[in-house]
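Journal club side-thread
Mid-discussion, someone asked how the predicted structure for our own chain would compare to the paper's figures. Pasting it here so we can look after the session.
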Amino acid sequence: MSQAAGLPYLVVLFGFYTISAVASYWLRARGRWVALGGAGAALLAALWVWSLDLSRPLWVLPTGWTVDLEAPITFAGYTLQLQAHNAPVIAIYLLIAALTLLIYTQRHADAAFPALVWLIVGGYTAPTLLTDAPVNPIIVTPLLLLMLTALGVYVLHSKHSTGFTGPLRTLLPPVLAAPLFLLAGWWVDQIPLSPQDLTITQNAGALLTLGALLLLAPFPLHAAWPAASEESPPVAVLFLSLLYQLSVLYLTAQLVNAFPFVYRQSDWSLWLSSLGLVTAVWGGIAAVGAIHAGRLWGYAAVHDWGLIVLALATPGVRSWRLVLFLFALRTVSMTTAAVGLSALLRQTDTLDMNGLRGVGLRMPWSSAAVLLGGLGLVGFPLTAGFAGHWAALQALAVVDWRPAMTISVASVGAMLGYVRLARLMFGAHDSRVLTQESALSAGVAVGALIITLVIATTPQLLSDLITRALAAFS
């Protein structure tokens, strides 16, 4: 094969996804080893994609074959192409998959879960790589997110689920947003026909703003993930929530870069700042009354997500740097909490707070992971999330100190929820709790705690990674 007709790199990437999914399903009876091998493969693939040098797009293999990094794949008018701005996002998807599969080694999800992880990562990779379509790719992407969310409902509603309400609620934001994007696409197509008519750009900007807000799922659309956190395995909630939220953040970045009139012709900043503030406050308030460890985790995550939405209100590179910093710390904190919750759920078969009385005395490392990860989501000092929350509150206080103070007070509510959980877990021993912490669960929890403490004490370690990822969003 000549160098001019190299094998597209995306064929290799999607081939890797396919082989991994098929192998994971065939070997599902050896779930723990499949998950461990998949975690290693996903981590290596993430490093591989992250380190790609697109300034040298042609690889010449020892066999004489060539691989073209930037060669597009076209099917039915849809073109996928690896570019400098989407490669970091693909790498982060793979990193999230690696963390998910590592947690799955504790085995509290369906046996087919590792295969579904590869399938869903491949699904999210496709719209991220979409560069051309019969209509603008930004208009099409919400429809693809709707399909992926529908598949995610199946993953969340596993045989270990206690309900179906939370998984179904995750469909609501993309179901509401997709028609608005399609309608906005029609108005966008009218702009070149009547460039002087400001009504057209105003209508397009309003529809795109509302669609993006719905996809971001602030208050009152926030309830899906806390409900899913109570009803579904923590590892599935971690995986799907992080993938969905990262893809929506990337879509938002594409939206404001491709259609700058969204800032000018709509109340973008007002809506994001208002709804972000309400979301952060409600997450903290709701956490006070939570009686389920999973739902408490979900409300803490809602509080953190509200702060991210609030940070999006200010346009520019500085805002995106803060958003990515918060999301990186969110990933660390949510993963740490999921490690502990998965271990507790496997050993005790419940995450109801009353059922966890005294479990901290028998499973100290997993219990500590639950507390440290959850507190990181509300910016408690000496946790991974503290640096990000402190930076966001400082940036907010420069403009107006009252929202910053309101968020701080709300975060205290979530902290009180975790104080109550800690008292139950490490308080009087319940004779019904006869479980012991396995060596595997303790090892995974200790690893997560070490990483969390390292990030908490030296958050500057993330600086180079965020700078590299910033190219995808700004």
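Post-session note: The chain has 20 helices and six strands.
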